[in-house]
Amino acid sequence: xxxxxxxxxxxxxxxxxxxxxxxxxxxxxxxxxxxxxxxxxxxxxxxxxxxxxxxxxxxxxxxxxxxxxxxxxxxxxxxxxxxxxxxxxxxxxxxxxxxxxxxxxxxxxxxxxxxxxxxxxxxxxxxxxxxxxxxxxxxxxxxxxxxxxxxxxxxxxxxxxxxxxxxxxxxxxxxxxxxxxxxxxxxxxxxxxxxxxxxxxxxxxxxxxxxxxxxxxxxxxxxxxxxxxxxxxxxxxxxxxxxxxxxxxxxxxxxxxxxxxxxxxxxxxxxxxxxxxxxxxxxxxxxxxxxxxxxxxxxxxxxxxxxxxxxxxxxxxxxxxxxxxxxxxxxxxxxxxxxxxxxxxxxxxxxxxxxxxxxxxxxxxxxxxxxxxxxxxxxxxxxxxxxxxxxxxxxxxxxxxxxxxxx
Length: 407
Prior knowledge:
The protein is mainly alpha-helical. It folds into 2 domains: about 1-195, MFS general substrate transporter like domains (Growth Hormone, Chain: A); about 200-390, Growth Hormone, Chain: A. The protein is about 80% helix and about 0% strand. It contains 15 helices and no strands. The chain has helices at about 10-35, 40-45, 50-75, 80-100, 105-130, 135-165, 170-190, 200-205, 210-230, 235-240, 245-295, 300-330, 330-335, 340-360, 365-385. The radius of gyration is 20 Å and the shape is globular. The two termini are about 25 Å apart. Residues about 1-5 and about 395-405 have low confidence and may be disordered.
């Protein structure tokens, strides 16, 4: 069964995408919020900084593992119903963080919240691409996924400011309130989108086909290269570039804004040629990391390198999602939650690799590690560009909506 949303005017289609963008922004901000108030949480819960840092790992594990599992369990449900249920439970999962002081319960709540964000991501993509014609699928994806990019650029810093001003629990209270707002907007503005015809078992053979796993592997490597460098960017800026204090925040904000701008514009490239976009994007990431490694001692050039890095990563993101769904064919509904899992595994792998490199070495060794991985990624991107979707009627990345009035 193909999704059949209500006939929407162009304005209503944009409102649907805006609602999904807002949902991704709020949930993305919740994911990153702990980083900015880590010391405050550690003091309040009476645990060490590394123990508090485990709250970030727990959320990522919940998203990477729990997201696909929940997507499989809810595969036959209406996508709007999944969105509403995920938002309601996400608000409830974050509410204890405002009230409790038990570290174990806090950890469990973060795992659950991560899994709920994972299922929300898959359902949001399904709902977003159902309200646009096939030639605009990439642009719809870029709007939805940009919510996460903007949350990294703005949501996390704003949450950190709130946490510093009124306490970290106030930040999570704001997340609960904003999630409730998104829930209401979803109920009003997102049309029903029916589930695919087959269940999880029928979709799994397509969603986990070798061609799909290859692009998921590419996604993992891209983010491993990125986070091998980014995780230890502050020591690099301090030790190599000579930047400290508030200027470090300016550099990080520049990277975040560039990523958000790239993800917004990346949808057009995905619609034009997603496979080619990934080849160009991976090459751009490698060149940006090379520039950062060689020229990072000059502040202005380091800033340009970070801007280019963020832009290339942002532009590639919709194409990664597009290729996975396209290559999955009839398994697209299940596959659409998998790139987020690959991203989180890549982040964990890259952070570990960068940590090993920088341990007992110079501050630039993490950037060099990211560069080495990025160089390896380029031929992988070229190889995956040769992969073709399955030759079946449902092989399109998303079903065509039953409306002729959309833009």
